[in-house]
Amino acid sequence: MGDAGPMENCRRPEKALSARFVETVTEPGKYFDGHGLFLRVAKNGARQWVQRITIRGKRSELGLGSPPAVSLAAARKLALDNRGKAMLGGDPLAEKRKAREGLTFAKAVDKYLAAKLSEFRSEKHRKQWRSTLDTYAAPVLGSKQVSDIAVQDVLRVLEPIWKTKTETASRLRGRIENVLSWATVAGHRTGDNPARWKGNLSEMLPKPAKVAKGDNQPALVLGDVSRWWRDLAKRDGMAARALEFLTLTAARSGEVRGATWDEFDLGDVATPATSATRRAVWTIPASRMKNGRAHRVPLTPEAVVRLESLPRMEGSPYVFFAARGGMLSDMTISAVMRRMQEAKEKAGDVGYLDPANRRPAVPHGLRSTFRQWAAEQGYPRDMAEIALAHFIGSEVERAYQRSDMLDRRRDMMAAWAAFLQGDAAQAGNVVRLGVAE
């Protein structure tokens, strides 16, 4: 280790850098790898890849982006490519400057999404990415050169919604950071990423966890559940049937809307009018789950009856299909609840409001309603969390938690179905397996 100057440490490791070292290093200084590549760590924790290179006899430094957006492997490839260009008489610095000219944030979003959209999990995720940037970021940043965007510009985007739409704002920040990281690697800007959280925006905005409580999805109060359920049964249409099934299974909207018939094993099932043993199961593949793990859902007789009553469209794999056979949109299901609320208000009824924030309940809030019901009924916490497909405990605990409690959850979901229908006696006449936590 030697001194690079009076203010900055220059560190030359005995061997090349490792991905682990890049991920964990915090001490300010310069950490060299090869081909003139080094990692610069600033006093505020900001990190940047830099390459020292001789171009046409003149020594220069090239910024290559920042980790983790630019990995060690990616930085090495960029450094090697630049070295090759310089050796052949090219000027990678001039190329970078030329590429940086005239790129607005709006154009950067287009270029970034063109390169990255295929990595997103679903069409909904792709639309959300574009929608949040267009709605919140474009009015402030769209026409600005990416090279000119600073921390204050990003704050102008985030501050108006940070406390009222915290989850959306937090995701938006990450998306702006990704676009600007791409712009840096592509040579359109230099320096720190103004949308970076740690050691940057974290010093100017409250932590999302501290303000996100007011951003919860509005839920049904337990006392409104049975009348809401009866109201829903009067609604016609595929979206209303999807909402019923969503409620019976405590599933997410995307899981229900994307359900295909090959995910269901109805087996020897019973209906409410029979007493045969039934073991109907809906298995949602990992590719469609938010947590990336396959999820089994025990189906009650009420859920099976609704499935068997559904029409099928030739050529469409979807259980709950749209008019042309494709997947229902998220807004279609939300619209059912919105119309139910509007009808109540028109009749002079307050409708179905979340008691905490006085906002009309929405489909995703039904999962919170189920969770509250399960807790008040004394069901074990882990069982209720598994029903919602949430991760439970630490990584070590999950490694030992091999059972998904399918049969025990079947009894719980049967009691939930009874509660929805207002059958308090049946809902309460269930043997509790385990103790409340």
From TrEMBL:
Domain Tyr recombinase: 215-413
Record-annotated Core-binding (CB) domain positions: 103-184
Region forming the signal peptide: none
Keyword Lyase applies: no
Short name of any one Pfam family annotated for the protein: Arm-DNA-bind_3
One of the GO biological process terms: DNA integration
GO molecular function: DNA binding
Keywords: DNA integration, DNA recombination, DNA-binding
Alphabetical list of InterPro entries matching this protein: CB (IPR044068), DNA_brk_join_enz (IPR011010), Integrase-like_cat_sf (IPR013762), Integrase_catalytic (IPR002104), Integrase_DNA-bd_sf (IPR038488), Integrase_DNA_bind_dom (IPR025166), Integrase_recombinase_N (IPR010998), Phage_int_M (IPR053876)
DNA-binding recorded as keyword: yes
Domain of life: Bacteria
Entries under PROSITE patterns matching the protein: CB, TYR_RECOMBINASE
Family matches, as PANTHER family: PROPHAGE INTEGRASE, PROPHAGE INTEGRASE INTS-RELATED
Family membership: Belongs to the 'phage' integrase family.
Protein name, entry field: Integrase
